[in-house]
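Re: that chain you flagged

S.,

Sorry for the slow reply, it's been a week of failed gels. I finally had a moment to sit down with the sequence you sent. For the record, here it is as I used it:
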Amino acid sequence: MNEAGSVTEKSDLAQLIIDGDAAGRLIPTILDFEYKDRKRELGGFLADLNNSGEIALLSDANLAAIRQLEHNDFWMVFGALSDAIEHVVDDYPAVQQFAECLVERAGNDGASNTPFVSFVCWCEKHPSQARKIITGAKDGQEDCQRSCVFALQGLNDFGYLVDFLEDSRAEFRSMGFRALVRLKNMTSQDDQTGIDACLSEIQSPSSDDARNAAIEAVFRIWDNDATKEKYRQDEAIKSLLAQPTDDDLVRLCAMLFYHKNASTEQTISAVLSRSQSISSSFETASHWIDNALTWKDERWSFKEVIAFIEAMVPHFEQPAKSKQFHSFCEWVWEEPANTSYLFARWLNSGDFSLCSFLAEMVSGGYKGAALSLLPQDLPPEAVDQVFLARKCIGFLWLHEITAASILLSLVEHGHPDAVPEIEDLLWEPLLLSYSSELRPYLEQQASSASPTVAKAAQELIANHAAYIEGLEKAQDLSELEPSNEARRAAAIKDHQRNTDIQKQARKMSIFGDMFHTATMLYGRKSFSMITGADGKKFPSITPLSEHSYSVEFPRLSVVDPVGFNRLLLVCRVEQRKEK
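Prediction finished late last night. Pasting the structure tokens below so you have them in one place:
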């Protein structure tokens, strides 16, 4: 009974579709079915009806109807129509025109090429039609040239492809390169022949388009090669980097991302090094390199990546953000040695953009992180270590734990002549400005295994205790009148006066009744009346929870705002003194 019912239902569906096509409403009929039942797969069913001659799926009228569909309606029928392409039986012009119509209507959507995927399957099932496309392309037929790559892919015959790779015409070489990496089951000899053709195009380009297609093709072949030694890769990269344009360098950076297994260690190193000379597209090149980064991959050198990024960041139109370098930041914070090398190198450089990026990295998820600079990463001269410490204060002053940990490592491993000045910076402005989190951190460091760090932390804590004691004694000085209590009372009075003025203003405003006003009272629950559909009102009681947030303002920004801001500004912008 179920089978009979299924047959009857299928027959009814077929008749409705046939009637819809006869009335010139095939596409609206398919749309109705898709809205009613998305689980039904209509693609093959439509192709069968077309092949039997009961409907004309590929007709010009249906193409016009597809172009006139609204956005949502088009995507409702897109899947069924794309699936039908693979199964229809017709000459290539009609099938190609139908596929191109769907792709054109789909626009820039990620799924827009689905009809072409089905067209490749159609070419695979109809090799005689695919050969006609290839012949037409060689004869200069424009429609055949547009679909020649799909025909070559459908035939999956390297012999046909070689003719295009060896053709003297640039547009045909482009077709060959684009089809090269789409073929299945290529032998190692086929790969080498393809790479030879790509390298020939790279060294003696017939056109920019053919050269770009050759670059993409050769990287794809290398990507599919499981061996570590990539056939003729050194020659290709040497040719590409001989006199590269900015577009060439950006393209190579993109290749490192799209084809992560394609490049050898030497290639990655060469691309990173040569790309430092780029004169435009700094953000784009950085984007590709960061996305290509795999920090557990031994082919990538951390120091070479840093050299590349520090050549890019100063040229960004907007200050660099940590989200632009997500993979790089993860790599930096993964190993203490990486963190030490980067912070010591960039703070010692004094470059405003790079130092600002360090502060952004700490703010971007590692706020409050303590790090230590290793002895081998520190500059040897005392004056350079002091310069590094002042840059640390200037750019990392909002991150007191991070700044203090860097300065303490300078005290531990630094030049004896630099230590006194660095300790002074730890005291002022750092500890004088922050105490809520920095003081407990220093108390931990007071028991450090390093005697130098422990002694410095103990002295800072003792000085801070004496400073706080002095502040408490000074609060009774007549020069500090009025007292804090009097100031607080005056502030409360001012607040109440402002509140009364606002209430009076709302009461007298001609617009006051146009807006709903709600008053939040202090308590543990909120109470409001809800009006139901029948007009009845009922209470709604919602428990309230406490949300708190605290922030510590630097004490010196209150005590001496002018001097404090001047110190930070000088630490940021000062240049290294001539030796």
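What I noticed first: The radius of gyration is 36 Å.

Talk soon,
D.
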